[in-house]
Write a structure and sequence with these properties.
98 residues; alpha+beta; 3 helices; 4-stranded mixed sheet; Trna Endonuclease, Chain: A, domain 1
Length: 98
């Protein structure tokens, strides 16, 4: 499965839980995760999306560690089957109205 398909499914799943999954870019700072997930009640997480079997670059691993040290949820996924678990971890209710 292509990375962009997994990313599209992540965006759709976040919307279904009443949240957002914005594309996250930070000019001047490389390696930031692909998506910032914003869910109800102020829940925030960061998700790096990879094609199945692809690995994160060292700068991406560093950015994820930085986010985690600050207390944010940050994850790497490489399959659509991981999306529900990631959203659960961030704190999104499965049946939240949109």
């Amino acid at each position: 499965m292509l990375e962009k398909i997994i990313e599209h499914k992540l965006v759709k799943a976040a919307r279904e839980r009443g949240g957002l999954a914005w594309k996250f870019t930070s000019p001047g700072t490389s390696g930031v995760p692909d998506r910032i997930i914003l869910l109800r009640d102020g829940k925030v997480g960061f998700v790096e999306v990879k094609a199945p079997g692809k690995k994160t670059r060292p700068i991406q691993e560093r950015r994820i560690r930085e986010l985690r040290r600050l207390g944010f949820y940050a994850a790497v996924i490489d399959g659509a089957e991981q999306i529900g678990g990631v959203l659960d971890e961030i704190g999104g209710e499965k049946d939240a109205p949109c």
